[in-house]
Amino acid sequence: MKVNELSKKVIGLAIEVHTALGPGLLENVYKECLFYKLQKESIFVEKEKPLPVIFEGVKLDCGFRIDLLVEHELVVEIKSIKSINDIHLAQTLTYLRLGKFKLGLLINFNAYKLKDGIKRIVNGLDDE
Asked: Which residues touch 29 (CB under 8 Å, ≥6 apart)?
């Protein structure tokens, strides 16, 4: 499945989770439910995937964790906050750059309509 198709599938499943639970729960609840839905669909997903930093040729564990990494290529960052701001976009973009991933989804489950809480973030991969 191509990454764009994969992102549509993840968004659809996220909407199912949001429809069932509504806004206002903790981030971890939505993460666990979306993780479950992805596994149920036989989509490979890793939760809290460590993301090291390579500095001067040395691999350093700086504590970065991707909420969900889907099929080794789609970064999914989950929030349950009043609104997404620039720091959340920067965090997701940093994960894309560090892991050399092309596409990320920043999903804020605290939105009244989930489609209003989804940001699609593309990494130009210009550092390669």
From this structure: 21, 80
pLDDT digits (tens, 9 = 90+) for 14-31: 999 999 999 999 999 999
45, 33 contact by CB (below 8 A): no
Residue 75 in contact with residue 96, Cβ under 8 Å?
A: yes
Q: How far apart are CA 116 and CA 39, in angstroms?
A: 25
Q: Which CATH class is domain 3-122?
A: alpha beta
Q: Of 35, 47, 46, which Cα lies nearest the Cα of 10?
A: 35
CA 22 to CA 111: how far, in whole Å? 9
Please write the tens of the pLDDT for every residue from 101-123: 999 999 999 999 999 999 999 99
Every domain of the chain and the residues it spans: 3-122
State the DSSP code for 62. -
pTM as predicted? 0.92
